[in-house]
Specification:
By secondary structure, the protein is mostly beta strands. It is about 5% helix and about 50% strand. It contains 1 helix and 17 strands. Strands 2, 12, 13, 14, 15, 16 and 17 form a 7-stranded mixed β-sheet that branches. Strands 1, 5, 6, 7 and 10 form a 5-stranded antiparallel β-sheet that branches. It has a 5-stranded antiparallel β-sheet with strand order 4-3-11-8-9. The protein is globular, with a radius of gyration of 18 Å.
Length: about 260
Amino acid sequence: MIAAGSLLTLTLAACGGGSSSTTTSSTASVVADATTTTEATTTTEAAPAAEATTTTEAALAAELTVESGFATETNSLGTQRTSAGALVTNPSADLIACGVEVQFSLLDGEGVPFDTSTETIDFVRPGEAAPVAPLQIGYKMPPPAQLTATIVDVEWAKGVSFKDCGASFTVLTGTVLDVTNAAVVEDRISGQISNPSDALVETSFIDCVLRSVDGRIVGGESTAILDPVAPTATIAFDIGVSVTPGEGDTAVCRVVA
C-alpha cells in the first residue's frame, strides 16, 4: 500500500449553517507527494485570501487550513483502488464557514492531474475541524504520485450555527450527530451514532479521515446512513474501507444530517 498524507478517534484492532454576512471566496491547496513505494509526505498550508470586502473576511479566509493524504493499493482481483481524505479547520471564534467546496485531484509523477472529485462540506463551525472524503476517486486508474486538496469556494457568515449560513443552504437540518463506541477492524469502520436533537433524522452522512500511527492522513471514506435516528436515540453504523488500513490506524469521523 502506498500511503500519503476530530471529532472522534477510532482505534484499529490488531487483527487486521440568522442573517448571512457579505460573502467571499478563497482557495487553499495542499499537496501530498509519494516519496517511496510505501509512504509519502503530507503538508498543511493556510489558504491564501482571495479578494474580500472586509479585512475580517480576508484574514479568516487566509487562516482556513487543509490537511490531506491518500493511500492506494491493488486488491486480490488486480483492481487498483485509491482512498483520499482531507481535514478542513476553521479557526474563527464567531464565523461559520458555509458551503466549503474541496477539490481533490490525483496527479501522476509529472504533476499532471488524471482524476478529480469535488466534495462539499455544508458547514464548518467556529473552531471545528471537519473531515471530507470523495465517494470514489482513482478507481481502476494508475497509482497516483501526489494528491492535491484545494478549497475552491467558501462563504462566511456571522454565527456559530448552520442556520446562520442563510436561506441558500437548506439541504440539511444542520444536526451534528454524536459518534461513539467506534472501532476500525480490518476493512470496516463501525460504531454508534446518537441524535442529540428533538427531531427525527431520516438520512445522515458520514465522512471519515484515516490517520497512520505517525499522524499522517492516509485516506478517507464517505457514505450516506439511510437508517432513521429518532430524537435522543442511538443506532449502529458500519461502513467499508476501500483501501486496507494499516495496523494502528485511527479515524476522525463526523456525521451530519
